[in-house]
Amino acid sequence: MTVRLGLRLALRGGREAAVRLALVAAAVAAGVAVLLSTLSLFNAFQDVAGRPCWECTTGPAAGGRAIGAAPGAVLWNYREDVYAGRTIKRLDVAVLGPGAPAFPGLAALPAAGRYHVSPALAELLDTVPSAQLGDRFPGVRAGLIGRAALSGPDELAAVAGRTPQELAGMAGTVQVRAVSAGPAAGDTTALYRHGFALAGIGLLVPLLVLIGNATRLAAARREARFAAIRLVGATSRQVNVIAATEAALGALLGAAGGIVLFQAVRPALANVAITGERFFPSTVAPSALQYAAVLAGVPLAAALAALWSLRRVRISPLGAARRAPASAPRWWRVLPLPAGLVLFAGPVFWGDDLDPVLGDAGLALVMLGLITGGPWLTWRAARLVARRPRGAASLLAAQRLAADPKAGFRAVSGIVLAVFLGTAVAGIVPAVVSGQLAAGGGTLNDVLRASFERPLPPDASAELLAGLRARPGLTVLPVYDRGLAVELPIPPPACYPGCKVDAMLRDVVVCRDLARFPALGGCPAGAPAVATAFRRLLGIDNMLSIARDLPIVATNNPAFRDDVTGLGLSGVLVRAGDAAAREEVRTLLAGYLARTGSADLPQTFAEVAEARAVLLRQAERVALAVVVVTLVVAGCGLLVSVAGGLVERRRPFTLLRLSGTPARTLSRVVLLETAVPLVVAAVLAAAAGLGVAGPAVDALAIRNAPTALPGPAYFLTAGGGLAAALLVIVAALPLLKRMTAPDDARFE
Amino acid sequence: MNGTPRGQETTVTPGNAPAPRSTPVSGDPVPGDPVPGVPVPGAVIEARGVTRSYGSTPALRGASLSVAPGEILAVMGPSGSGKSTLLHCLAGIFTPDEGEVWFDGGRLDTLADARRSELRRTAFGFVFQFGQLVPELTAADNVALPLLLGRVRRRAAYERAHAWLDRLELAGLRERRTGELSGGQAQRVALARALVTGPKVIFADEPTGSLDSLTGERVMELLVGLARQEGTTVIVVTHDARVAACADREVVVRDGRVTDPYAGRVPR
After folding, report:
1. What is the pTM of this model?
2. Partner residue opposite A231 with nearest CB, options B113, B114, B132
3. Which of A224, A233, A237 sits opposite B150 (nearest CB)?
4. What sign has the CA pseudo-torsion A81, A83, A86, A91?
């Protein structure tokens, strides 16, 4: 019966109840739509991350005997091609006998002279001249590659059938018996998961604030109504049930509306290239369980929020009374913020690496400090304004904020986390990106590096070096493999903290060659050659790590004998300033790399840096997307809060207008009440964000990197979001004028 | 207590109202004072040495009062004298800081909140100056509300609510929300709601305070008339001498104590 009464009050309680219900439902719907959008993008991402990574398939290098019939085996040559800046995944296969391994997205691997392409590539092939693209795929187009093998609708991929003889002659061909079915093991997956987790935290707070604000709409009138119900004999429990029912109903309608809204935006969502590429539209969807969780969880959260909001209110039959007078927030509420910053930045300051556990704990504390410290700062700011008010508006706004800073800050708390997270990421990424390109003072950017899987035999090494040295304009640094059998002086000298000397110093460079690459370091005086740990320089794909390792050769590196004859190459560095010469070197190196089974492409350090920078920019895009959706949710919460505050104070505002206060002054009061905590909180959050970004950049030991400020996308997102928030308030002001019109004054 | 208006079965008129008891001035024990822990025989509701403060401001300083079944008592006094506080203590809305409140032979002030809520639902009725009706509900909903909260079946609750609204000449306003009613109509709805459960006591706090004199008189006429018909005790707090004139007896609250303005005189 009590539940029914709650439903009756919410559904058939007249115009005001209908407006309140509609506001709650609309606010919750917006929040739910954003939540479902985030969930669906995460699901799509998970779908891509979990797809079988056929590109990861490896096998032994194909020798001459591999050409013969071998049931269940194929020759496999995977590489990446480029068209107009877009990567094409290209697989050439030669089936060696019956029972060829299954390939995701294809019923069977194509026979020689036939090829399958992804739908996007098929479209491209149909639209561009064959001399530009189609001729790269000799044979007949036999069909399309299915979704199972693709990351998204825009992916360009081709699987071409070749004869065993053709493939055996191609560099990088391996023999495989099974296509890799596991997901790709890349650190970017963890990066994105972390990003989505942060998005989850970033969204959760404003969502809860939104639901909380929505359930608090017109709280004073609601409490008066509950008092009237208490007067006729309702128990506190019955009042709680009524309050929870009302809130849950609004949230349920909002959740259902949010699902409808989400369905409307879903097609557009599928076009969001959050990781740089679009997802398949069908994967951009929440699961049935997630729908159910939203439909059940949001009303439950609203009901709990309603009960929570009543916890400090004693509803007596004569009215509502606060259980305890709202005391001014104390200074210690801000303590988690500096504590978190110390926890996060302390280890870096004291010269250690960033501890992941301490770092996460520090981040959590910073976010907690922003939320708990916000009311105190709002109170301080309000007191400051109240001390020297510039007029009636600032006096009214400041005193109200000072009287209840928690409520004032609550409305903007969602925005604070968005600004914090956005600033932190936007502060780190540009520094890291510029640090990537600045490794070695930028002098390595035009240096190609090639690392052989196994040491290149001495004769082939000599041949390669002769070929390289014959070309004008190149500077070559051969890196020889000394082998573990060659003894080092005992005890081995230290290289740098943590490195294992005997395992690491496998390489040898000749000092006169090294001298042409000063960024890499210098030999001990008089040494003809040195043992080094050059392999790290050749294999690592993070320029920040490389920069940290520089100089790779120092005066304490052990000297090596002058004669390196008889040693094979473990890698080579070639500086080629001219782009054409660089491509020639790349082509030359490709054959030698394939001979050692290396699948790596020779890349310049600038290209290595750029590959990492692309990932980082993607992460930044994810972070800014999080900021955008968080700002949307927080903006909804702000709108609800402002509208609710207006409804709540209709009577005192009308009385002020009746006594001659201009509507403009009241508008300024409302604007100031929201703008003061908003600006204070945003500045604090941005400062905290930079406070986290700074140590993180330091922890990454980015050398030679110029100070990088957040990019324009950040200022556009965060600044635009804050401006939008202020616009939201301004948009609500005409409502204030109408609500407080003296002509409509009627209170009882 | 059934919910059917009882006027048909019982008629209680001012003439057969119980003889008023003289109320001693609080704090001055006299022979025959009630024994602590024992209800006064014949009193339906009683306050004994009740004190109640708002923070450091005392509102009641040992107020004592007993009211007989079917009696209509007017509580008068200047603003801030504590008369409303006394009413709220008698109704179990406030718990006294000290003293006892007895209802129907049992202690009221020591009851748990849920039990006091139940009493408000079943044994008490309230008519206040304003703010007592739920604006989101219709007149019929408001009248049926205490019955619905008491788990009376919906159909029965509305039948009884409609009967009372008809009796108070509000039949055409059943589906109106209370915000759409005039002050007098709203007070009649409140009266119907107060009577629908067949209460033993109706507490009225300035029931005509927001009404014009004619409407106020009509409301008081209905309140007193129906209370007499139903045999219901009425305790009405008022400033208005015309309202007090409708009562069988009046007491004055001054500085938190109850005094009988006619003490020592021949009862009216």
Report:
1. 0.65
2. B132
3. A233
4. negative
